[in-house]
Amino acid sequence: MWHSTRARSTVLLVVLLVGLVTSFLSAYGYSLNHFLSATVFSGGERCDPGLLCVYFLDVGQGDAIFIETPDGHQMLIDGGPGSDVLRELGAVMSFFDRTIDVVLATHPDQDHVGGLVDVLDRYTVGAVLMTENKSDTPVYNRLTEAVSDEGAAVHYARAGDTLVLGEGVAGEVRFEVLYPDRDPTLLESNTSSIVGRLVYGDTEWMLTGDAPQAIEEYLVALFGVTLHSDVLKVGHHGSKTATAETFVSAVAPDYAVISAGKNNRYGHPHQEVLDTLEAAGIEIKNTADEGSIKFSSDGAWVSVE
Description:
Helices cover 33% and strands 25% of the residues. By secondary structure, the protein is α/β, with parallel strands linked by helices. The protein has an eight-stranded mixed sheet, covered by helices on one side.
């Protein structure tokens, strides 16, 4: 009888605690399932202190790249097509972390900015970097409204801009804008994509949005082999409209990351792109096959998980 009473009391206590936790999570816009999955999944995914971490998030057919510097500053480049980005951020950020220092929207297409509306709703964002290319579409209009409501500082990125994100033992972590170097309002959306390079010590990531081959070849003409980077984010989800052989040769990465949806209707990545990367001896990573992909750097080396 004593054991039965004690068991009932324990069950009631657990039910009460679950109710309190659920109420607390609901107040912050989370579900209990989200909390449990993030807590379990994120144990090995969080950034190790003192390292730069770059996550290519699995958001389906789209782009979302989360960066955390050795001193804890954060940047999100694009947000994928919808709210899946919140789940992925929940796996790599502390559950109680409600701020992101910088959000960058490479260009106004749905598969890059759709999820940023949800990000701006859930997180406090310090600054937003955008292209001046504007799109009169419902998703872009919602994004501009969300940016206005957030009250974050807005900067329209141009070639030559450098954003210092944070620092570590190897020096500054900086994002260098390489393109556009002209009025992007006159360009097609993909052609207006912000192309930038993330640099920490001797390690670099080349991040190209949906920039087509014409822009890649233009950058090669401007910068040549100084484009070299350890990691290349493959343009336009592996479409054959990007990844020119001359550009791949100039960047000469060890890793190429394709951010695409599983069994997507576009057939990304196209075989021509895979052939180009394989011929160059580059290790290919694809979110459609592996889920979110994490790179780490101490400024001297890059490792991938």
